[in-house]
Amino acid sequence: MTALPVMSTNPPEISTDSLSLEDAIANLKQTEDPDLRYYAAWWLGRFRVNQPDVVDALVVALEDESSRSPDGGYPLRRNAARALGKLGEPRVVPALLASLQCEDYYVRGAAVESLGDLGDKVAIPRLLDFLDGGVEAATMMPGKPHLREPYDLILEALGSLGATEAVDQIKPFAEHSVEKVQYAAARAMYQLTGESSYGDVLVRALAAPDLQLRRAALMDIGAVGYMPGAEAIAETLAENSLKLIALKGLLETHLQQSPGDVLSDEAIHAMDLMDDLL
Amino acid sequence: MTVSSGSPQLQPLLDKLHSAGTAETVRFAVEDIAAAQLVEAVPILIEVLGYNNPGAAVAAVDGLITIGEPAVMPLMELLDGFNYGARAWALRALAGIGDPRGIDLLVKAAVEDFALSVRRAAARGVGKLHWQEFSGEGDRVAAQSKALETLIQVCDDPEWVVRYAAVTGLEALGHALESQLADERPHLIARLETVVLGDEAPALQARAKLALQRMA
Predict the structure, then answer these.
(1) For a designed S-S bond to B115, which of A76, A117, B84, B190 qualifies (C-beta 3.0 to 4.6 A apart)?
(2) Do A8 and B54 touch (CB under 8 A)?
(3) In chain B, where the domains are located
(4) B10 min Cα distance to partner chain A (Å)
């Protein structure tokens, strides 16, 4: 499922003045203090600072060996991978592809997500390798609270990348036992086939008893631009802030898919729904 | 609506609310209280805004808006003490009621509240005040002038959703603008045109375009 946006209803907005750009870059390049470096990687991604020295330093951080969490994870690599997805710099794709080999599940997940965001189809074959063995192989990682691979993120990335050749491999995951994997598969299948039955799966998820699933489904429908879901978004039991973000996503995907000077009836309807949520 | 101190109608509804054990049953109980349209339910409906239960808060806001005028002073008195989440709901109730007494609070919140959900609800409310309820023409013109200045300023808010609310506010104000403010109308139109051409969010451009279409 889509990562949730920075929640606007929770802490007050993060201020860009909390760190200067020069400090953030210097913090990212130093290796003495891992906490500062970790925060700088996040910060530079959050504020989308796309400049060559930042990109280079983040690529270096993707191979960092110094910052390790107690469970053997690579926290700095995770943040670097996420930040690189936000900067929109195509030249980092090979570095992200390399980090798909990382033993840290969360580094792989962050890299997968960023590859989906960067939109370079060259990533498709490597992402498809993760689906080898199909649903049967997509089991829990022994001793860990997650599956063997970040299947939900992989399926989403394949959808975002327009991997129509992967439809046969993606489809069975709509029956996976984990709900967020099912929804990720439905989301990808809707993007790749345009079949409304998959959009309807996402709309049904808006009624899930679990608020986290409802929130994720809101973002998914917005991201894929499933216009028949607009009304259902507005009626979901969730924060108005989130419903507004979902409808904005829906509207903007729709505007992108049907450009032109005249606003469509669907676009106007979506805006009327947004007005009522303000 | 009836004002009743003994509130025989309210008590069974309150009992139902207090025995509700899940978010959903709380919401059902609040919906019933809201539907009863009792003035004496104002304090409990305001209390519900702080429950961190979005469904119940929506129902409570609807109830407060329906009750209308008698809810205005209690809402204004209690606004200061709320956490930011509840303030947004309370502001939304005030905005929905549209009572002239709310204008200063709404203008201030739209411009300077630290929580974007509060700025959003307030900006929406500034544009949708019930202008005909201002006591005289002078007050009405002064209030509209202040609202216009506020909303034009809020179109520069860093958060898209606050700017979106300001655009909807400008549209509503554009429809209701007093004839004495006819000279201000081109400023309002020009601000919307700037959003169409210059806002970074396509949704904002589209909403401003829609506003201009509807005002043409």
Answers:
(1) B84
(2) no
(3) 1-97, 99-216
(4) 26
Contact A9 B85 (CB under 8 A): yes
CA atoms within 13 A on the CB side of B213: 12
Under 8 Å CB-to-CB from B28, ≥6 apart: which residues?
A: B20
**Residues spanned by the domain of A215:** 194-278
Q: Say if domain B1-97 classifies as CATH 1.25.10.
A: yes
CB A245 within 8 A of CB A221: no
Per CATH, the homologous superfamily of domain B99-216 is: Leucine-rich Repeat Variant (1.25.10.10)
Domain count, chain A: 1
Minimal C-alpha gap between B117 and chain A (Å): 7
B124 to chain A: closest CA residue: A278
Kindly list the residues from chain A whose CB atom is less than 8 angstroms away from the CB atom of residue B121: 278
Place of tokens 């929770």: A10
Q: How far apart are CA A85 and CA A89, in angstroms?
A: 8
Please give the C-alpha separations between residue B165 and each of A79, A184, A262, B62, B82, in angstroms, as whole numbers: 33, 32, 22, 19, 22
Dihedral in degrees, nearest 10, Cα atoms A213, A3, A12, B105: -60
Q: Which residue of A has its CA nearest to B61?
A: A277
pLDDT in tens, B78-114: 776 666 678 888 988 998 899 999 999 999 999 998 8
pLDDT digits (tens, 9 = 90+) for B154-199: 999 999 999 999 999 999 999 999 888 889 999 999 999 999 999 9
What's the pTM?
0.76
**8 Å CB contact between B177 and B134:** no
The ipTM, to two decimals, is 0.81
